Amino acid sequence: MYLIDTNIWLERFLDQARAQEVSHFLDRIPTERLFITDFAFHSIGVVLTKLNRKDALLRFVQDTFIEGAVSLIHLEPKDIQGVVQMMEQFNLDFDDAYQYGAAEKYDLTTVSFDSDFDRTPRGRKTPAEIK
User: CA angle at residue 88 from 82 to 94, to 5 degrees?
Assistant: First the structure.
């Protein structure tokens, strides 16, 4: 079960350098095994609309949630104390600590290109590392 970080989804939808790696990963792994946080989902919405890519946002929602079975997860307000502790303990910014806290809460493997997760006990995997 995999928590897919914001940068993975954006890599594909913005057709960036590692988009093919992401596409190959998403083609191999059933959507029922994929998770995204509400924070990541909303961040993607902000980025895509700021880039005037509303079409990509609508396609993302269609592919991910309507046709796919990716699960949307969140942290409760009571979980934020742990997020702040993770920020301090692992020198993470809020969004990374939120992702890390969600991965920990739901016992998921984080899939990300962000090396900041390498400072944590759970670490992260890139799409290419998932077999």
Answer: 70
Q: Where are the domains of the chain?
A: 2-129
Taking only the tens place, the pLDDT of each residue in 33-82 is 999 999 999 999 999 999 999 999 999 999 999 999 999 999 999 999 99
Measure the CA–CA gap between 25 and 127, rounded to whole angstroms: 6
Count Cα neighbours of 77 within 13 Å in the Cβ-side half-sphere.
0
What is the DSSP-derived secondary structure letter of residue 70? P
Cα–Cα dist 62/8, whole Å? 17
The correct CATH number of 2-129 out of 3.40.50.1010, 3.50.50.60, 3.30.70.420, 3.30.450.200 is: 3.40.50.1010
What residue has token string 């290419």? 128
pTM of the entire structure?
0.94
DSSP state of 52: T
